[in-house]
From TrEMBL:
Name of this chain's protein: NmrA-like domain-containing protein
Pfam family, one: NmrA
UniProt xrefs under Gene3D superfamilies: NAD(P)-binding Rossmann-like Domain
InterPro entries: NAD(P)-bd_dom_sf, NAD(P)-dependent_oxidoreduct, NmrA-like
Domain of life: Eukaryota
Residue ranges annotated for the NmrA-like domain, each copy included: 7-83
GO cellular component terms given for this protein: cytoplasm
GO MF term list: aldehyde dehydrogenase (NAD+) activity
Amino acid sequence: MSSKQINIFLTGATGYIGGSILTGLLQHPNVSTFKITALIRGDENRVNKIASLGVIPLIGSNESHDILEKAASESHVVIHTSNSADDIPSVKSILSGLNKRIQANGKSVIYPFESR
């Protein structure tokens, strides 16, 4: 799979855990095969910082259910670190998107998430 592009959707990329994961992804030996999209609240400084790293900023929040679902449906890997334990709607949106991806191509996806 290293020769194909891997679409990764990351939430919480500007936070402590998500930022550490993003750093790890950007330092990975196969980073050139990654297309990383990060959900970013509309703060211009955050958006510019993420974009300067070669990451695609996707403006939204955990309440942007249509955005979460669409991004998840287009990703091979979803890493959800902006979640809180009681934010069930954002998790449902991501799972709905992943289910759409599975239904469309029959392939499994990877969805680790952090629950506080």
